[in-house]
Specification:
The protein contains eleven helices and ten strands. With 286 residues, it is α/β, with parallel strands linked by helices.
Length: 286
Amino acid sequence: MPRLPSGKAILAITLVMCLGVIFLPPSGRAGESSHLAAVKKNGVLRVGMFAADTPPFYFADKQSGEMVGYDVDLAKNLAKLLGVSLDIKRFGPPYAKLTDALDEGVIDVLISYASITPQRAEKYSAVIYEYTNFGFLIDLDKLEKSVGRELISPEDLNSPDIKILVQKHTPFEAILMKFFPNCTAVDCESNNNVQLMVDAMDRGAAHVSFDRELVFLIYKRIASASFNRFLMHPLPEIVNPVGMMLRKGSDVAPILQEYVDNRDDTLELAEIIDKYMVWNTEGGKK
């Protein structure tokens, strides 16, 4: 079943509720009661994923071209559960093309390591299957030279002269500004791509990046020694629910929720990275 970061469960639940991004999944089957019947009739579960690879969750194998990853295996298990084949369709950028495909009925379910925000929780039937923390990636030496003072704690980043990279007009920006309202948010091209963030930091656009802790852990694994100049600071009090999204009222959602609640193959964050991060610094398979 979905898990909270170890050792922080009660605190995290309290703070996430304050943040407004935790909710109970819908239990009713009102609305599109024929969705399950349509999936069964078509004999296929159409799963939407974002076009940009996001390892270890979904990415194209560089040798076979096939989709692999944690979310891909989850989609395969769900199709098997429903007794149908799987068809993965990719959309974007921008990310809105993926949610548009769900709205228009082009896909049955969106499984793309999606953050479940209050807006998405209200609009869609969501099934949470993961929780992640957020964190900062900091080039501390350059940052302190830039602002001319020593920075001791994350609270010191809540200042207008601190520029923090985050993809603007996204839930990530909203979360950053809720907890660090006085910082200056600087737009980056894409969350999940730490190399783009590092390049922007090297250019001096900012010396701090904000994203899910998982993204920085993956970069640390890939970048190896070059990562050592950065300080990675997790923020365990900021928890991000991740889930699948279906059209509101879909009678497939309760089935998927039951599967998630009772699955016994969940992995810890480090285990997910170990199992699915098969690319070395040259981009080839280990």
